[in-house]
Amino acid sequence: MFDIDEELKKLPSRPGVYIMHGEKDEVIYVGKAVSLKNRVRQYFQSSRNKGLKIERMVTHITRFEYIVTDSEMEALILECNLIKEHRPKYNTMLMDDKAYPYIRVTLGEEYPRVLFSHRVKKDNSRYFGPYTNSGAVKDTLELIRKIYKLRTCNRVLPRDTGKERPCLNYHIGQCNAPCQGKITKEEYMASVDRAMELLGGNYSSVVNMLKDRMNYHSERMEYEKAGEIKELISSVRKVAEKQKITKVDGDDRDVIAVAKEGDDAVAAVFFIRNGKLLGRDHFFLKVGEETEENHILSSFVKQFYSGTPFIPKEIMLQYDPEDAELMENWLSSLKGNRVRFIVPKKGVKEKLVELARENAAMVITKDRERLKREYIKTTGAAKDLADLIGVPSADRIEAFDISNISGTDSVGSMIVYEKGRPLKNDYRKFKIKWVSGPDDYASMEEVLTRRFRHGLEERESTVEEESGRFTRFPDLLMMDGGKGQVNVALRVLRDLGFDIPVCGMVKDDNHNTRGLYYNNREIPIDRHSECFRLITRIQDEAHRFAIEYHRKLRSKGQVRSVLDDIEGIGPARRKALLRAFGSVENIREADLEDLKAVDAMNEAAALNVYNFFRK
Predict the structure, then answer these.
(1) Cα three-residue angle 240-245-251, rounded to 5 degrees
(2) CA 573, CA 465: separation in Å to the nearest integer?
(3) Cys-Cys link to 203, which of 74, 218, 240, 301 (CB 3.0-4.6 A)?
């Protein structure tokens, strides 16, 4: 039996984190303290004015525990981690973590690339962002390819120079083919420098350079080339228009303000990079009705920067945060450079903070219910799914489906949901190579094996591809079926050394989902819950994507024997192979010498077949 009065006497006068538990032993509050003894005892002193939220919380505390740290800084870091892990009811909570895209220039490579990046790492690359609009990032990357013709492939240069033919980008005029030595390193690096100027916001010099090129071609009556460059100039101006000049200076800074209404609050963040407003976003928070805005702001800053990969040198705020010096030191240690808070009182900076506050107030007034509904449908539904089956997280879900015509010509699809939303850039398609005939289990085994094997190979590759197709692994696998499909997935994961939860979507006689199959038992679902609706959306999307891919291939006349996709294998050799081995599976298992021995096959064709089934 936990005796609160006795345990209070044992509290040390040391810095640390305290954790309050409720009636079901769930974590209901996490806090930090310079002195655990003084801070925790305050909650249980009736003479203190604690506020309605804390008074309500205290009535539900059944026990507390604490973790002693060596410093208040360690306590702050631990508090952030525990809040993120447990999401306690009585803490001010950031309801929807957001990940922003960046543009990464891989300066650690001899011939750098300019790539879309989901995160910032401490490597030799230079990062631009964050951007709040992934479409704008893609437009900018496409523009850079057209103007500067930088490579996007993952070849290691100069090691691989001349080993393979140039890719499609070279043939359509969007790469200068350093892989073939068609441009010197000095010329290539000059293009990289100019691309970084554009990313840094120096649009005028790019426009002037393009105008000179356009005039050059016009004077020589090369009007088609001049017209193409004119379109590029228009594209540069469109990208430039998306970045509003703030009239401050050229530094990186975030501007943050909050607005509160009842037990809801919104934080607005403006992202300023090199003196330009790259974008703005807002965040929905759950707070207590009596919680002051300065406390909300402090809680948001801690949670936001404990999860974001980029921290600017200056953070402009509406109020002085609680423990300002401690938090500055913490953020400085994370960034590796000095970070400071500013609460501007006049001038342009003060107007920027006021503009952020007005945006937050406008959002909470106009979009409060919409934001709540969106959270419940997406991030909230994913959390409910994780709780329902008892897994730590369902932030990233991958679902797979097999499609065929009358049991033949199978194709596979992989769809991805992150925080309850479809992540279409990570969708993948598979042509079934190893299986012939109507065997969905074997086809699914092939698709899963290829997906996770590719992920392992990409992670082990000496060249890290930031946008690697399979390097990010799911928190949860969802199979469009019950026990059989789940067991296939578990066997593949076990053989490849993965420990990822696998959940099956069990259907009734009308082919409607009735429950989930997890850990050898069927778990019923409330058909009126957002969790159920999320599962239905995932299931429908997996079907749609697989069928769409199959239809696309069929319309192009491409749904045929997988052997037709092998270079050097035409109708005659395909017939000879099937006659010799009887099935695609036997061809796949054949060794190189057996393939060479088939009539009509030569050494090159046999090698192509052998390698095709081992990719």
Answers:
(1) 110
(2) 37
(3) 240
> What pLDDT score does 381 carry?
94
Domain 253-365 belongs to what topology?
A: Nucleotidyltransferase; domain 5 (3.30.420)
Secondary structure letter of residue 474 according to DSSP: P
Query: What φ, ψ does residue 18 adopt, rounded to 5°?
Result: -115, 145
Q: How many Å apart are CA 256 and CA 263, to the nearest integer?
A: 20
Give the rounded distance of the alpha carbon of 387 from its chain centre: 22
Fold held by 4-91 = GIY-YIG endonuclease (3.40.1440)
- CA dist 606 and 595 (Å) reads 5
Q: Which CATH number fits domain 562-612: 3.10.20.30, 1.20.1330.10, 1.10.150.20, 3.40.50.2300?
A: 1.10.150.20
Beta bridge partners of 283: 267
Cβ atoms of 79 and 86 within 8 Å: the answer is no
Helix (H, G, I), strand (E, B) or coil at 333: helix
The single-letter DSSP state of residue 164 is: S
Arithmetic mean of pLDDT over the chain: 83
Rg of the chain, C-alpha, whole Å: 29
Q: Which helix (H) or strand (E) holds 268?
A: strand 264-273
Cβ count within 10 A of residue 344: 16
Q: Are 304 and 283 in contact (CB under 8 A)?
A: yes
The answer to whether the CB of 329 falls within 8 A of the CB of 302 is no
Q: How far apart are CA 160 and CA 461, in angstroms?
A: 15
Of the candidates 541, 561, 542, 559, the residue with the CA atom closest to the CA atom of residue 550: 559
Question: Would you say the CATH fold of 382-555 matches that of 253-365?
Answer: yes
**Which residue's structure tokens are 């095709």?**
612
In the chain, where the domains are located: 4-91, 102-201, 253-365, 382-555, 562-612
pLDDT for the residue 502? 95
Sequence-distant (≥ 6) Cβ neighbours of residue 30 within 8 angstroms: 17, 18, 19, 20, 79, 82, 83, 86, 88, 91
Tokens 């209404």 belong to residue? 261
* Residues 138 and 488: beta-carbon distance below 8 Å: no
Please give the Cα distance from 265 to 94 (Å, whole number).
10
Give the least confident one: 330-344, 494-508, 546-560.
546-560
pLDDT per position as a tens digit, 416-474: 999 999 988 889 888 888 876 667 888 899 999 999 998 888 777 644 444 456 788 99
Mean pLDDT computed over 178-183 = 90
CATH superfamily to which 382-555 belongs: UvrC, RNAse H endonuclease domain (3.30.420.340)
Among 280-284, 383-387, 433-437, whose mean pLDDT is lowest?
A: 433-437
Determine how many CB atoms are found less than 10 A away from the CB of residue 420: 27
Residue 489, number of CB atoms within 10 A of its CB: 25
H-type helices in 367-408, by residue range?
A: 368-377, 379-389
3-state secondary structure of 601: coil
| pLDDT of 95 | 65
Q: What are phi and psi of 524, to 5 degrees?
A: -70, 155
Q: Per the confidence metrics, is the pTM higher than 0.85?
A: no
Q: Which residue has the tokens 């069929």?
A: 554
374-408 CB burial, b ≥16 within 10 A, e <16? bbbbbbbbbbbbbebbebeebbbbbbbbbbbeeee
